[in-house]
Design a protein that fits this description.
This protein is mainly α. The chain is 87% helix and 0% strand. The chain has helices spanning 4-29, 31-50, 54-84, 90-118. The longest helix is centred in the middle third of the chain and has 31 residues, at 54-84. The model has no long low-confidence stretch (mean pLDDT 94).
């Protein structure tokens, strides 16, 4: 008889494997993810340089996590749209624009966050 915990743990391990595969695929193939990851690392280094507080650093990391999450979802929506309807279609274009708009909200929020964090240090 199979132990239910074994299958549950195996399922979670597989899910985690797929998640990391997706993250590495994004980092290897998507220039926007590469760029935003690099900028995030630069700002983390700047945080140590300016000796920002632990809470400021946590908010900064959370902000860049938000950007990477939004960009990842935007990429997934765009790839799905391109797969479903490879040719231009007005409604598909609107869906892609809306997904991109979510990314814009994330970036604007993080720019405001970074301004609040770094303005006193400059």
């Amino acid at each position: 008889m199979k132990n239910i915990n074994d299958s549950f743990l195996k399922g979670r391990a597989k899910s985690l494997k797929y998640s990391f595969n997706g993250a590495f695929l994004l980092l290897k193939t998507e220039h926007s993810i590469m760029t935003q990851s690099f900028i995030g690392v630069v700002f983390i280094a700047l945080g140590f340089y300016f000796k920002i507080t632990k809470f400021e650093l946590m908010f900064q990391i959370l902000g860049f996590g938000l950007i990477l999450t939004a960009e990842s979802l935007n990429t997934a929506v765009e790839k799905l749209c391109d797969f479903v309807h490879p040719d231009y279609h007005k409604k598909i274009g609107s869906v892609k624009d809306i997904a991109s708009g979510a990314m814009t909200f994330a970036v604007i929020s993080v720019l405001i966050l970074l301004t609040i964090i770094y303005y006193p240090y400059l």
